[in-house]
Amino acid sequence: MVKRSVIPFGPQHPVLPEPIHLDLVVEDERIVEAIPSIGFVHRGLESLIEKRDFNQMTYVVERTCGICSFQHGMGYCETVEKIFDVEIPRRAKFLRTIWAEMSRMHSHLLWAGLLADAFGYENLFYQCWRIREKVLDLQEMTSGGRVIFSVNKVGGVIKDMDADMLKAILETIKDVEKELKVIKKTFFDDYSVKSRLKGVGILTPEQINALGAVGPMARASGVENDMRRLGYAAYSEIDFEPVVSNDCDCYARCYVRIMEIFQSIDIIRQAIAKIPDESDLSVPIKGNPNGEAFVRLEQPRGEAFYYVKANGKPNLQRMRVRTPTFANVLALCEMLKNTEVADVGLLVVTIDPCISCTER
Amino acid sequence: MANITRSPWLLHYDGSSCNGCDIEVLACLTPVYDAERFGIVNTGDPMQADIFLITGGVNEQNIPVVKQLYEQMPEPKVVVAVGVCACTGGVFKDCYNIIGGADQAIPVDIYVPGCAARPQAIIDGIVKAIGLFQERLENSEKESDKVG
């Protein structure tokens, strides 16, 4: 009979940029069970609807998470626009698409860096973050903010991208693509990276469906689940196929995310080629929202769900966000079973945890 | 700075922030901004850290964690609050769970504003923290000389 013991993991841990606590029940080096406890980043953001009106909430919702901040703002605005039943200008839709894909690029590069750091490849970590800075420069140039843009508003967007900006974006993403191809080789073919990622943390498609995992986690296990196919913003006019892998392990998740950066580059190119020349960036919104609506969209980490209920007053009645990491934490706990303690850091990073999204 | 005999080590903890400042703190340590050129080293171990970077407005559940991390750090130590949430609570000030700034939980020496705080501002805060750390180191050496 092997003796069982409990190892606490987190909330403060070198591999974690954010606090989450896991109680790891181990037999020798093997994990039998992982019990998560969350709440270290819970701010009670949804309750702010009592104190801020629906326009001000755009900026609060953007601060749900600093990494996918733009997409949170976009999701909220699309939901309120659905209640108002307005169609935003086509140019605004394309601008939203370009910004959304930029934030996906920077999020995936950030994740690739953290993954490299988790398996001890410091050099690769720095390279990923160096490339990521180029995307951040684009975001700063177009919106004025590096990580939090605040360019969304109910009814459209606030800022426009002029022809010079669009040209600069095309040039920079060409650069990023070139450098990414070099890094891709290391991630996909390097012997030590492969030996660390292959066959680790296997989740079968059945488990994915049973646990409700979303985003790159699901796509890496062969479940073709991409909310961009619903055609929100300008995605209905853009041609793309979800990146899917059938390997089900950490290597597959790495593959899916790296290939999605290339996909984002492609989507930005298509969007810039198709963007219409309009001067209107938003439609006027009159009065207060009345009714309820929901919107699903694909964030870098997977499907996010927004629900808004309003009763004709400036303050909303209810605002609810279901974030992708919340769906993926269950899959993480399942994945941790029967793994070595040494792999825990890697496996936690591989779901791309965004705790501030999860707990709001 | 020349007479610091050891490199100040840096501990970073997310005290209920939205993540925006945390990724900027990490961006500071990567090649483009490279705060490590000032001799600091990023560590995950509070017992070896001299400078504590804290982001976020700190919620009720996080208070004991933040306090424990602060207490585990050896003297002298410097605390830098990064981002407007860590300074005052920021956009989340009115949330029921946020105590309103890191200084409600632990003593804070340097405040870095911004939402999210820019890497340049964070580096400025770190450099100021190194100066303050050296001052405190010298003072504590004088104290120990008197006792000795």
Key features of this structure:
heterodimer, A: 360 residues, alpha+beta, 3-stranded antiparallel beta sheet, B: 148 residues, alpha/beta, 5-stranded parallel beta sheet
Helix-strand category of chain B: alpha/beta
| Mean pLDDT score of chain A | 86
Biggest β-sheet of chain A, characterized?
A: 3 strands, antiparallel
Give the N-to-C terminal Cα separation of chain B. Answer: 26 Å
How many structural units, i.e. domains of chain A?
1
Number of helices of chain A: 12
Task: Encode the helix/strand succession of chain B as letters.
Answer: EHEEHEHEH
Average pLDDT level of chain B: 84
- The second-level CATH architecture of chain A is Orthogonal Bundle
Fraction of residues of chain B in helices?
25-40%
**Assembly state:** heterodimer
Low-confidence stretches of chain B: none
Number of beta-strand segments of chain A: 8
Structural class from helices and strands of chain A?
alpha+beta
Low-confidence stretches of chain A: none
Side by side, the strands of the main sheet of chain B go: 2-1-3-4-5
Biggest chain contact: A-B, 43 and 38 residues
Rounded Rg of chain B: 15 Å
Q: What's the CATH architecture name of chain B? A: 3-Layer(aba) Sandwich
Strand order in the sheet with the most strands of chain A: 1-2-3
Summarize the helices and strands and which ones pair or pack:
The complex is a heterodimer of chains A (360) and B (148).
Chain A: E1 4-9, E2 21-27, E3 30-37, H1 54-62, H2 69-84, H3 90-118, H4 122-143, E4 152-153, E5 156-157, H5 163-189, H6 191-197, H7 205-211, H8 216-219, H9 250-274, E6 290-299, E7 302-311, E8 318-322, H10 324-336, H11 344-350, H12 355-359
Chain B: E1 9-14, H1 20-29, E2 41-43, E3 51-55, H2 63-72, E4 78-82, H3 84-88, E5 110-112, H4 119-147
Parallel strand pairs in B: 1-2, 1-3, 3-4, 4-5
Helix pairs in contact in B: 1-4
